[in-house]
Amino acid sequence: MPLRPGLPLSRGNAVHCPTMTNxxxxxxxxxxxxxxxxxxxxxxDGTERSGVTRxxxxxxxxxxxxxxxxxxxxxxxxxxxxxxxxxxxxxWTLCQASVVRVEQKDGQGIGVxxxxxxxxxxxxxG
Length: 126
Hints:
- This protein has strands at about 15, 35, 40-45, 50-55, 60-65, 75-80, 90-105, 110-120.
- By secondary structure, the chain is mainly beta.
């Protein structure tokens, strides 16, 4: 699913997801669930790539992508969130994300851990 440049993020269905500031060894505030779904990644320079998730929570994501990303970079993600994450009824979402960690994964592309800073449910088409 291609992203649309300049897509407004204030349609009334957005959820703000504050990031953790606690420095405990386990920094996740939401329970991660193993979920493999396609994700579309748009970097701040406008380039788009495909990826696949490894796991998701209501405020974080780990995905594999073929493109290089840097910790601290901002992304837009289009991803299908399952209802069991507790973010509405689930469905296609547009997420604003911040990369917190990048890992090289042999045979799986590049692993990217990111916080989900904002989640907007996209309207269903049909």
